[in-house]
Design goal:
The protein has helices at 6-9, 18-38, 53-57, 59-62, 64-72, 85-95, 160-163, 175-185, 190-198, 204-225, 242-250, 258-266, 272-291, 307-318, 324-344, 349-352, 358-372, 377-389, 407-426, 437-450, 463-466; strands spanning 11-14, 44-52, 97-100, 104-107, 114-117, 128-135, 140-149, 152-154, 295-298. It has 21 helices and nine strands. Helix 9 crosses helix 15 (324-344), helix 14 (307-318) packs parallel to helix 17 (358-372) and helix 15 runs antiparallel to helix 17. By secondary structure, the chain is of the alpha+beta class. The model has no long low-confidence stretch (mean pLDDT 95). The strands form three sheets. It has a five-stranded mixed β-sheet with strand order 5-2-6-7-8. A hairpin with a 2-residue loop joins strand 7 (140-149) and strand 8 (152-154).
């Protein structure tokens, strides 16, 4: 087993889903690279893409079809102006033409060249898709892809995560490894160990810069979310709530910049109720941006993208643990915990339900918060264990296949659980704990394997059925 950088777990993404939007988008870009490597785009006559299983069943609500078309068009989700997405997709569907890789216009008829096959799943993974290019001479290139969570993709022979995996000096594939390596090196903090291992990818200065860039993107996303009104796309007519809550909490205070807004937030009264509402506001803001195809931080997935931002913003606004160093160490530890779940269980809701998304993100955030609160390495792992323990069995049952109900509110709950878990761990003796992080990860994976497929991001069970709304 090889090591994963924390910046493969916490990274810039685009809504509304890492597995159903970013994964297919990455697959389309990979398919273009494969064509360019072995053929020429100018020789392509037609391209077909078919989505299966969970990708098909919740594809419309998750923007899977949109991701496929934009990816094949050569768009980059880290750079695209998100306000132009609808316009670009409307043009493709109206003109029935696709500008392949930004180089060649080819016919593209929705329903013929792009199909959502809800009746079939591929054997390798629930999130399967097949791309097919037909060339002018009649020859074809066919490639299967699988979106395995967090934007990572795989084929039956190759895994995109493994390309970024390397052997670090002190590999940590379990919580036990983390504690043993810290003791071996005479370190006192989990983040110190993460710094050492991240040097296998980049210098310490580059690691710090990458973490602070993540924080900048988090601040930008929250600020956009608390200032954006309206109805979320998709047909459920879900109203954005973060902006109204932000206004209510600030009262008559006026601001014109992100910095002014944050200073007002920090000056809020420190009552439990007020802080609780702000944490919820932060999480709602991010996940409303995610639901609206905004740019967010995938941590470890898009459906769970609001938990870590909400907890880290809480630490910056309402605790004394609010330095740049605290930001960096929080992100490094949170990312490291995410790698343990990725390697030993799953971060894909199609494989494990929402325990694999909001549950994992809550564990990550709890660990990061405990780290900057001065917790011992054992307390850091204990916080992650506590947070996940109380998400075990959480299903993924999005109403109408949209990352809105219950996903948006669920991030607020995950953030509050993370803060609670950190507070419990800080006041506890890990030596007396009866459950370890490694055991709870194993339990989560066993639960995932036993969970009925109807509750794994198919919109075929739970709330998705109780709330009788046709997929939009």
């Amino acid at each position: 087993m090889q090591s994963i950088s924390v910046f493969e777990i916490i990274k810039v993404g685009i809504g509304p889903s890492s597995s159903h939007t970013m994964g297919p988008w990455n697959a389309a870009e990979n398919f273009l690279r494969q064509i360019r490597a072995d053929y020429r785009l100018s020789d392509v006559a037609e391209v077909y893409v078919e989505f299966f299983g969970s990708l098909a069943k919740t594809g419309i609500g998750h923007g899977t079809d949109i991701a496929g078309m934009l990816g094949l068009s050569g768009e980059d989700y880290q750079k695209i102006d998100t306000t132009t997405i609808n316009e670009k997709i409307d043009r493709i569907r109206t003109e029935e033409l696709l500008y392949l890789g930004g180089e060649k216009t080819i016919p593209f008829v929705y329903g013929k060249h792009l199909i959502l096959n809800m009746k079939k799943s591929l054997d390798f993974h629930p999130n399967g898709m097949i791309f097919r290019a037909v060339f002018a001479d009649g020859s074809e290139l066919i490639q299967d892809y699988y979106s395995i969570g967090g934007g990572f993709i795989a084929t039956k022979n190759e895994n995109s995560m493994e390309k970024s995996c390397i052997r670090t000096l002190y590999p940590c594939h379990s919580g036990r490894d983390v504690l043993e390596n810290i003791k071996r090196l005479g370190l006192s903090r989990v983040s110190d160990l993460v710094f050492v291992n991240e040097e296998s990818w980049r210098s310490r200065e580059e690691t710090e810069h990458a973490a602070l860039y993540i924080w900048d993107q988090i601040c930008e996303c929250i600020y956009k979310g608390v200032n954006q009104e309206g109805i979320l796309p998709g047909g459920l007519k879900v109203s954005r709530r973060a902006a109204a809550l932000n206004r209510k909490l600030l009262g008559d205070l006026q601001y014109s910049t992100q910095e002014e807004w944050l200073e007002y937030v920090k000056s809020a009264d420190g009552t439990f109720t007020t802080i609780n509402k702000w944490v919820s506001c932060f999480a709602l803001a991010v996940n409303e941006e995610n639901a609206g195809f905004g740019r967010i931080i995938t941590a470890p997935t898009n459906g769970a993208s609001g938990v870590i931002p909400a907890v880290l913003m809480y630490a910056q606004a309402f605790t004394q643990h609010n330095t740049k160093e605290d930001i960096i160490r929080f992100i490094l530890v949170a990312g490291e915990i995410g790698t343990l779940f990725k390697k030993n269980a799953t971060i894909s809701a199609a494989m494990g339900g929402c325990q694999a998304e909001v549950g994992v993100s809550s564990a990550m955030a709890a660990a990061g918060l405990t780290e900057i609160m001065g917790g011992t390495p054992a307390q850091v792992l204990m916080a992650a264990e506590i947070a996940m323990e109380h998400h075990l069995g959480l299903t993924c049952d999005p109403v109408a296949g949209l990352v809105q109900i219950p996903c948006i509110e669920r991030n607020s709950m995950g953030a509050i659980k993370a803060i609670t878990a950190a507070n419990i761990a800080i006041e506890s003796d890990p030596e007396k704990a009866r459950v370890t992080l490694d055991e709870v990860i194993q339990s989560m994976w066993e639960t995932a394997q036993s969970m009925n497929g109807r509750f794994k991001e198919t919109s075929e069970g739970g709330l998705a059925i109780a709330v009788n709304v046709a997929e939009c």
